[in-house]
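Researcher: Structure for this, please.
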Amino acid sequence: MEPQQLTDVVERIKERGARGVELLYVQDRGHALEMRGSRVEPQQALDEEHVVVRVWLEGGRRADRRGAVTELEALISGALAAAEGAEPDPAEGPVGRLQTVTGGLGIRDRRYEQLTSDDRIEVLTSAQRSVKQVDRRLDAVGFRYRDRLRVRRFCNSRGVSLEEWSTTYSAEGTVNAAASPAPITLHDRVMSRSFASIASLPYGTSLARRAVQLLADGEQLPEGPVRVLMPARVVARLVAALGASFRLSVLETPGAFFLRASDTPVVDPRLHLVDDGTLSGGLRTCSLDDRGVAPVPLTLLREGRVDGRFIGVADARRLDVRPTGHQVGGALTASNLVLKSGTRSINACLSDLGGPSLQIDDLPDLDGLDLATGAFRFVVNGLVMEANQVVGAMRGVTLTGSLLDVLNAVVEVCSDTDRLEHVDAPALIAEGFTLEG
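Model: Predicted structure, token format:
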């Protein structure tokens, strides 16, 4: 659907009695490859499109419908019928013209149309081949590649008409290794807006080297309190889990989130977290959210205090503030999250601290984290460190504690940073963990 078609549909819905209308059209095209043994097999190409119809009747009675473009007339009729029975809300309605994002977003790779099958295949074959080059004891499975070209077009009854083009690339794989008490399975996925980034990241080699380190024997740590080094990968996973809760509705609900707004720091004052949907080349960078609002950069944690929150259109009207541009699907969602780094490297920090630490390899499963209380119970693999030297490995051990206690017991915020999908994070060294067998 071209922009003019969306404008015509909006006018047609208004003629049927709607006081307000929004249309969001999304089209995805892309490729998918998967390694089967030593062969690369093409998967079904991505070819999808959908439209979201949102209508308002008198009194702010709203209804939404989402479906295929071929079902557009049925979606319109369904939305109008549903809005008849909706509850009135004076704060509901389409948004007017707001300031748009200025400057280049870096989210469309101009190289996309020139990529060949050989270019895509090389990303997979080189990654899988590199695993055996590191250590022949390792098995490489589930290596996949995906890319997507997306166009989003938005139009509403208040004269707003916007368009955005973007690309996304992803590559992933799993490395297995026989070990006691259970086999080691490490998975990684790299994502970027540009093909050059995906093609140059040695994620297969990185997975293999991590697995080899975890296979080592050596010293073990006793049960009880333990100092933990969380590499950037681990911190990024925790930050991504926390980011989803900085919504107005969650922060204002007692007991819904363990971090509460306060005039004093609730975590270590060195922790400074920003949400920036305008970050150049960011995985969740966008020029508009699903309500046609440009994203507003927010400081979520300012020197340890909860400071920012994601606000939707209706709540923004009630509070007489600007919506923050975080509406994705049916929920408010974090965009690019950036945790401020420190000034000293992991190596220097551990060298000065001395003594034993446990370096967690990864936290792929966060089911053991309760965001309401902050309590966690994680089963992890890790490296035993003596100062800055690796002296052993521990597999399948359990760490328990409270994330609130951990974030108030940060020993060092390191300068070593990395990007994991939509999160930029540094490594952290912290107390507050208890090691179980």
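Researcher: Any notable elements?
Model: Residues 117-134 form the longest helix (18 residues). The two ends are 58 Å apart (CA to CA).
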